[in-house]
């Protein structure tokens, strides 16, 4: 689960007068590629799939778009369990889903959560992810989405319920507390706008010349000294060029005018960089801290598989190392899918039975989808 990087003025959550929680926008599922064991896949025997082999399946975008209306009015429940009017799990139903729409690549919907205990778990972050349960058909197809290859595709999707889970297969399916994605997109574009000084800051952080705990004054001094060295180098190059030119009065006067204009532009550029350097440094430091946190999260995630991992500072390297140790080659797997593979490997240590519906999260062993009787609230 990724922590919110910055606070936003507008929340997608609200509590009404009766204490019920309303979420105006939540990712319910997505047209992405996800890993499934053969035993989880509908039609596995017909397709000749191996029960303990991992297959990469693509939730077809057109299928999700057509299936969106089937999510409206479906129950939000505590665990994955097939629901129907004849067998409605009242004790674990905590809310409902409405206004589902497909906004590529995501299926977006509104949530209403009625149960006080469920609301507390969402608010304290202990269980604020969601996972869709649905019927579907499997078709063999080879392709690639966002760098991740797949060999199977889900079509004819029909939603049955939405469950609260701790770890979803769709990593963006989190009951968030942020502004709509168009605002996030604009902020992201602004944050990633190419700037000449940003590369200097990133290089300084990586080389150790700029420490993460350096004061703002030290950071500015570091950048200004580097600019001063650049200016001196440029001036030496101009002086050397001037020695080779004709020394006529008219040409000298023209050269002096050009030099004055260049100096003015250089001073303007230097002033602009000095004004923006603090912001650029803050962005670079935040990026480095996010990278460190992702690596730490990866170490925690793989500990049940391989124990403590040392000597690696990349989340992707840590995940791939852990998977390699248990015999899974993840060299060609897209980095965004690695946490799901690790989660599945951990869950594989517990016995599971065939499922009847697809679920966007790993199936709990006490879920009826795994063959157990329905869990009821205390």
The number of distinct helices, counting runs of at least 4 residues, comes to 9
Rg from alpha-carbon coordinates: 28 Å
Let me know the number of strands.
Answer: 10
- Overall mean pLDDT score? 74
H/E element sequence: EEEHEHEEEHEEHHHHHHE
Shape: globular
Give the proportion of residues in helices: 40-55%
Distance between the termini: 28 Å
Low-confidence stretches: 1-10, 178-197, 204-222, 242-248, 373-378
Proportion of strand residues: 15-25%
Structural class: alpha+beta
**Major sheet characteristics:** 10 strands, mixed
Structure description:
Strands 1, 2, 3, 4, 5, 6, 7, 8, 9 and 10 form a 10-stranded mixed beta sheet that branches. Helix 5 (196-207) packs across helix 7 and helix 8 (315-325) runs parallel beside helix 9. The protein has 9 helices and 10 strands. It has 378 residues and is an alpha+beta fold.
Which terms would index this structure?
about 40% helix; 10 strands; about 20% strand; about 375 residues; disordered C terminus; globular; ten-stranded mixed β-sheet; alpha+beta
Helix-strand layout with pairing:
Layout: E1 13-15, E2 21-30, E3 33-37, H1 44-47, E4 54-59, H2 61-71, E5 75-77, E6 93-103, E7 106-113, H3 116-123, E8 129-145, E9 148-165, H4 181-191, H5 196-207, H6 216-243, H7 249-306, H8 315-325, H9 338-347, E10 358-359
Parallel strand pairs: 4-9, 5-9
Antiparallel strand pairs: 1-2, 2-7, 3-4, 5-6, 6-7, 8-9, 8-10
Helix pairs in contact: 5-7, 6-7, 7-8, 7-9, 8-9
